[in-house]
Amino acid sequence: MAKENVLNVYSEIGRLKKVLLHRPGKEIENLTPDLMDRLLFDDIPYLEVARQEHDAFADILRNNGVEVVYLEDLAAEAIADDKIKNQFVDEFIKEASIQSEKKRELVKEYLLSFSTNREMVDKMMEGIRKEEIKDYKKTSLADMIESDYPFIVDPMPNLYFTRDPFATIGGGVSLNHMRTVTRNRETLFAKYIFNYHPEYKDANVPLWYDRTEDTAIEGGDELILSDKVIAIGVSERTDGASVEKLAKKIFEKDEKFEVVLAFDIPKKRAFMHLDTVFTMVDYDKFTIHPEIEGPLTVYSIRKGENPKDVIIEKETMELKNILEKYLEIDNVTLIRCGGGNMIDAGREQWNDGSNTLAIAPGEVVVYSRNHVTNKLLEEHGIKLHIMPSSELSRGRGGPRCMSMPLVRENLR
Ligand SMILES: NC(=[NH2+])NCCC[C@H](N)C(=O)O
């Protein structure tokens, strides 16, 4: 029997009931200066403190009635069956770009040697250093003459940004194809969770996107403005083609969404995802990076006559007017990160000052370090839950990026 409402997200702000996090693990201690660029970090966080901050984040959520589940637990629970575990390990190895056959065999043996699935999953996330598997060098020429690259399997340090590899939209999931190899490897965990975890496997969770697609889309670009309107950033990470594919899939099912808005935003790191420049904090309030106020080009995608067709319209408008028009609200307030002061805006933007996680309308989790923006939010009547932020922020993501809502209460 199909279970109902295992996933339910029809807004950005409806009371948060269940959320997916990943507690930063030893993958952070496998970040090196040489790897930072490719693995999308600007600095190396101090793991112990990052974990304290992350635990404080989870506590804020739990203390406010949110059920917190962890990616690493769900992934381990999803592969309880040995056949599925074996398949999962094979797929993981296939995507880990390991050069020689012998080395792949040894990695498999090593992963299967962990006594619990949870430990094995942690190891997959952490990456495997050369010295962990000693014998491979003797067996193949490729391995004998290989470079001094220190890893057999790369770490996945971005996993604590659970927002991106997949995203709940309505009653389904966008299982994303990520722009970069490092982040695309992360999506494998979600594939197994939605196919095999006891909570989800019989729920027939519809997939609005699949990781096997060849164009990119990331969860940080996917915002659910209401049960009628979805906004998606066409950004450094998300292609226009992906937005159209996703819109068609959603319209084919009887979801209530009526329009998908594709926001054309600058393709640069400070604007990485739409949620880096713009998050919803209340019914009629948004916190934004002043640079996207516009005029902005937006493409609205609606259902066509026949379910496979869509109608696309291009508009160029100020952000405020776009939101007022599509959300049918008379007056939308945009709260500028850093209060519009160029220095404060630039600094706080860089540390995700407008990347807030709403846990209810008018109630958000924010980073402590962005005090200029936080003060402004308070002045606009927003209730803040402030979390510590010196280490986690070094990965260039804030409270919204670090959380994937699974269930939100519907708004009245
Ligand atoms: N939804 C977000 N804004 N996520 C931020 C992700 C940051 C991560 N270092 C990356 O570059 O992918």
From TrEMBL:
It comes from the Bacteria. Its EC number is 3.5.3.6. It catalyses: L-arginine + H2O = L-citrulline + NH4(+). It is an enzyme of class 3 (hydrolase). GO terms for biological process: L-arginine deiminase pathway. Gene3D superfamilies: Arginine deiminase (1.10.3930.10), L-arginine/glycine Amidinotransferase, Chain A (3.75.10.10). Pathway: Amino-acid degradation; L-arginine degradation via ADI pathway; carbamoyl phosphate from L-arginine: step 1/2. GO terms for cellular component: cytoplasm. Keywords: Arginine metabolism, Cytoplasm, Hydrolase. The keyword Hydrolase applies. Pfam families: ADI. This is Arginine deiminase.
